[in-house]
Amino acid sequence: MATLKDRIEEVRKAFEEAAPQAGDAKSVEELRTAFLGRKRGRIMLLFEELKSAPAEEKREAGRLVNELKVAVVDRLQALENGALMAVRPAREIDLTLPGRQRYVGRPHPLTLFQEEIERIFLSMGFAIEEGPEIETDYYNFEALNFPPHHPARDKWDTLFIKGDLLLRTHTSPVQVRVMERTKPPIRIICPGRVFRRETPDPTHLPMFLQVEGLVVDQGVTFANLKGTLEHFLRALFGEKVKVRFRPSYFPFTEPSAEVDIECLVCSGRDPDCRVCGGTGWKEILGSGMVDPQVLKNVNIDPEKYSGWAFGLGVDRTAMFAFGIPEMRYFYENDLRFLRQFGAK
Ligand code: PHE
Hints:
By secondary structure, the protein is of the alpha+beta class.
């Protein structure tokens, strides 16, 4: 009578004969069922037999069945790969075709623009600071002279996270953080992301970028503010750019001014311009002399020191620098748009 060992050998031979015939995915699958199928697969039946084999045979036969199983699994895998390859059409390689261009990543236009702003301020002796995007009510509002329930908070509505944590509505809280930890003279800018309850349109987004600026020293005046910002905007847009200062209100500056730049999208010629609304001007920053109360909040003596600050809308200003009529383009991740900026 044939021993279990013989039958293992038989199955191995049968598989070796059948394997070369399996040329496509379907026959490979049939082969797998015939040999490894859970109920009637030939190798599985060998495992069944093994259970009742006499002890002296068991050890060696067990090893052989296992080896066979591993070999069959490997071979089936190789056959399957081969079958997959076979369905691909044979392709000739045409060496005369031009190579495929690979696109290399590059900085986002807003990053490039922010770096340009940083360069101009660094050249005037400013340092760069950063602050958290999740702020406390104290830094975003209280320390900047917005008492709880003050109506000025309405303009800066935002997402409140938990307790007194919120998504900062401007980069001005960094003013407070910097003044708390450094003594004057202070001359810093702070770029960063800010969040507000805004309905998106060509010049508003619920998330955008600002650059904050702060100067605190003895004898600092509004004339310094005006001269510095004018110099900055000329460096950015050229000597001829038209800029105007308008009186305004912020709880943390007194007096305050907003700065408009001529609409570089329509140059004031389109009464229906979606960027400037036909006025020919667009506000790009808020500024003013640091309110004495804000200095007191951080233990700087307002009798001795004075300061000025500004907050610039980066995305908006970038629209004019690049001549783009729509702020949302910056965030749509359309490569056709993004590839137009920076080095080729
Ligand atoms: N933080 C103000 C804003 O969003 C801008 C500002 C900054 C005004 C600094 C005055 C001084 O809109």
